[in-house]
Design goal:
By secondary structure, the protein is of the alpha/beta class. Helix 3 links the parallel strand 2 and strand 3. The chain has a six-stranded parallel beta sheet. Strands 8-1-9 form a three-stranded parallel beta sheet. The structure holds 5'-deoxyadenosine. The site of 5'-deoxyadenosine has 12 residues, from loops.
Length: 333
């Protein structure tokens, strides 16, 4: 696809064109993965963050938010619960919390690795040094999620304070790849000031990086951030970006992210129908879920993980997909 083809897809409002895009992306997904949908258990380990991203509710300057961090024991208990549900991949996600020094993160990873020798451990703890990433890898981490957020330097500087740069984000992603992690990049659709050209750059960036995973979801305003009054990202635009990513990187593992189901009741199923093939049930303790408030109206049900999990599992089957509980490593390209 040349740049014009991609820009046309990004901007089209023609329903037939959009439907045939999704048909093509479904086909691309089905050829590689069939109807299987993979599970990753999400553990939100801290909502402290030293960064001040303008879009994110757990940004440092949000004084309204009560902060928490999980202990190693609490994290292991989340893993136990997930394992009891049959989950084979744990994703440890958090703000960039200085309390979690490289040593502490490595200790947690080692403890999980000890208790669950055959599970996949995914980290999503932000920008660190190459040395830190090496340490985590040696401790037993296999995968790392770090969205690039936007592949345009100019746009990046409109979403982040000046101490954060796209160059450093890219440097981290390359270091992670080199070490041997399965790497996830990604971006938000519909962030303030985003242009179709920015989204084209995001797609081109993914093509260049060839990440094993790509997280794509709509921007959702969070009231206590500088972007609190901006409109949320468009559902169809988000779905188009998932579809384009699937067509151009057919092997990528693409989650139907929670943000999709926040902007539309059937958002997760629509994401699957646009080419996604991963879901990430939340294993975090119920008490802390609502505090991991990266955006407003984040689903934080009072239900037990097991109950939510059963509903999710059934929904996936009803939508014509096949839940697959294997740890589903990225395919060797
Ligand atoms: N809306 C949607 N996604 C957000 N993220 C952070 N804040 C928001 C928001 N307001 C996403 C970022 C980050 C991921 C963990 O959550 O892309 O990388």
């Amino acid at each position: 696809m040349n740049d014009d083809d991609i820009l046309k897809i990004i901007t089209t409002e023609n329903n037939d064109d959009i439907e045939s895009l999704f048909a093509e992306s479904r086909k691309a997904r089905d050829e590689v993965y069939g109807k299987r949908v993979f599970f990753r258990g999400l553990i939100e380990m801290t909502n402290y963050c030293k960064n001040d991203c303008y879009y994110c509710g757990i940004r440092r300057s949000n004084k309204k938010l009560m902060r928490y961090r999980l202990s190693c024991e609490e994290i292991l208990a989340c893993c136990q619960r997930g394992n009891g549900l049959g989950i084979k991949t744990f994703v440890l996600q958090g703000g960039e919390d200085p309390f979690f020094t490289s040593g502490r993160v490595a200790t947690i990873v080692s403890a999980i690795r000890h208790d669950f020798p055959n599970h996949a451990i995914t980290l999503s703890v932000g920008e660190r040094t190459q040395k830190d990433y090496e340490l985590f890898f040696k401790a037993g981490a296999n995968r790392f999620l770090l969205r690039h957020e936007t592949a345009s330097h100019e746009h990046y500087s409109k979403l982040h304070p000046s101490n954060m740069t796209l160059n450093n984000r890219k440097k981290c992603l390359l270091a992670l790849k080199k070490i041997g992690y399965q790497v996830g990049a990604g971006f938000m659709a519909g962030t303030p000031f985003q242009t179709p050209e920015n989204l084209l750059a995001d797609i081109r960036f993914l093509e260049e990086l060839q990440p094993e995973m790509a997280g794509i979801g709509p921007f959702i305003p969070q009231a206590d951030t500088p972007f609190g009054a901006y409109p949320q990202g468009n559902l169809i635009l988000s779905l188009k970006m998932i579809a384009l990513t699937r067509i151009l990187l057919p092997q990528t593992l693409i989650p139907a992210v929670t943000a999709m189901s926040v902007i539309a009741p059937n958002g997760r199923e629509l994401a699957l129908d646009a080419g996604a093939n991963v879901v990430m049930p939340n294993l975090s303790p119920i008490a802390t879920r609502k505090l991991y408030a990266i955006y407003n109206n984040k689903a934080s049900t009072a239900e037990e993980a097991a109950e939510t999990f059963r509903l999710l599992y059934e929904k996936i089957i009803k939508s014509g997909y096949m839940p697959d509980m294997s740890r589903a490593d990225a395919l060797a390209v």
